[in-house]
TrEMBL record:
InterPro entries: Sortase, Sortase_dom-sf, Sortase_F. This is Sortase family protein. It holds the Pfam family Sortase. One of its GO terms (molecular function) is hydrolase activity. It comes from Pseudonocardia kunmingensis. NCBIfam families: class_F_sortase (NF033748). Keywords: Hydrolase, Signal. The keyword Cell inner membrane does not apply. Residues 1-22 form the signal peptide. It comes from the Bacteria.
Length: 214
C-alpha cells in the first residue's frame, strides 16, 4: 500500500467509515460532538500558528502506540489496529474507550494522511472522541510511536459532513507532508437505521517531533 490509500480502495473505505461507527448495539445519546461540530458549509479556517511542514519533515514509518489530545481530555495508552472487515467495512473499536489506527494508510508522522478513529458513543457510553468537535485550530494532538518518537500535530480545521457527502479526496488524498485525521460520528442519531447522520473529521498536520533519550 502506498503512503496514502490507493484510489481503488477509497470507495470501500469511505463506505465503511461513514457507516460503521454510527451503529452502536444500543442507541445512545447523541453527545456533545454531534451538537457542536462545524458543518461542511462552515469549516474551521486554517491558522497561521500551524504551518505546513516541509516535505522532508516526514518521519520513517512506525506504528502509533497511543494518542493524547489534552484540549478534549483524550489520553489512550494503546491503539488498536484497524483494517477492512470481510464485509468490506472498516473495523471499529469494540468499546467506547478504545481508539484505532487504520493500518492501510500511513503511520502518523510519515508523509500522507494517517487516520485514527473512535466512537462518539457506544452502547450509551460516551466514546473516546465524544468531544472531537470541540477541537479548535492550534490544539495539539500527540501520537507516541513504536520507535520511541512522539509525533506532535497541530489541528487546523474540524468539519462535519453528511455521510452522503463525505469528501473522500479531502480526507484521504495525498498531502505534501505528514498529516493526521481523527474521525468519529456526529449529527442526529436515527433510531430506525441505527446510524448517525454525519461524520466529524479533525484535520491536523505535523508540527514537531519529540525523541526519547536513549
Amino acid at each position: 500500500m502506498t503512503r496514502t490509500l490507493r484510489r481503488a480502495g477509497l470507495a470501500a473505505v469511505l463506505l465503511a467509515l461513514v457507516t460503521a461507527c454510527a451503529a452502536p448495539p444500543v442507541p445512545g445519546p447523541v453527545g456533545r460532538a454531534a451538537t457542536s461540530a462545524a458543518t461542511s458549509a462552515t469549516p474551521a479556517a486554517p491558522v497561521a500558528s500551524v504551518p505546513p511542514p516541509a516535505p522532508d519533515a516526514a518521519l520513517a514509518p512506525s506504528a502509533p502506540v497511543g494518542i493524547a489530545v489534552p484540549a478534549i481530555g483524550v489520553r489512550v495508552e494503546s491503539l488498536l489496529a484497524l483494517g477492512i472487515a470481510g464485509d468490506g467495512e472498516l473495523e471499529v473499536p469494540p468499546d467506547a474507550a478504545s481508539a484505532g489506527w487504520f493500518t492501510l494508510g500511513p503511520t502518523p508522522g510519515a508523509r500522507g494522511p494517517a487516520v485514527i478513529a473512535g466512537h462518539v458513543d457506544y452502547a450509551g457510553v460516551p466514546g473516546v472522541f465524544h468531544r472531537l468537535a470541540e477541537l479548535a485550530p492550534g490544539d495539539e494532538v500527540s501520537v507516541p510511536r513504536a520507535d520511541g518518537s512522539r509525533a506532535v500535530f497541530g489541528t487546523y480545521r474540524v468539519d462535519r459532513y453528511a455521510k452522503s457527502e463525505f469528501p473522500t479526496e479531502r480526507v484521504y488524498g495525498d498531502t505534501g507532508g505528514p498529516e493526521l485525521r481523527l474521525i468519529t460520528c456526529g449529527g442526529a442519531f436515527d433510531t430506525r437505521s441505527g446510524h448517525y447522520s454525519d461524520n466529524v473529521v479533525a484535520y491536523a498536520r505535523l508540527v514537531g517531533v519529540v525523541r526519547e533519550r536513549g
